[in-house]
Amino acid sequence: MDQKRKFLGVNFDCCKVYARIYLNPEGTAYKGMCPRCGKRLEIKVGPGGTSSRFFTAR
Ligand SMILES: [Zn+2]
Questions:
Q1: What is the DSSP letter of 53?
Q2: Higher model confidence: residue 15 or residue 52?
Q3: Element (H, E) at 26
Q4: Total-model pTM
Q5: Integer distance in angstroms from the first to the last C-alpha of the chain?
Q6: Å from CA of 16 to ligand 1 middle
Q7: Average of pLDDT values for 42-50?
Q8: How far is it, in rounded angstroms, from Cα 31 to Cα 46?
């Protein structure tokens, strides 16, 4: 419960809202969805992935 989970702050361009998406258990991708419309988002981690902490989802 108290475990720190890595997350990314994402601006969902679809609804102009900010939300956090969390690293999956495998540590391979950040996954989440838009809090308003439910649009799914996945950002892969690692080579060719990203090290940025903030995103705008389009
Ligand atoms: Zn949305």
A1: S
A2: 15
A3: none
A4: 0.69
A5: 32
A6: 7
A7: 73
A8: 14
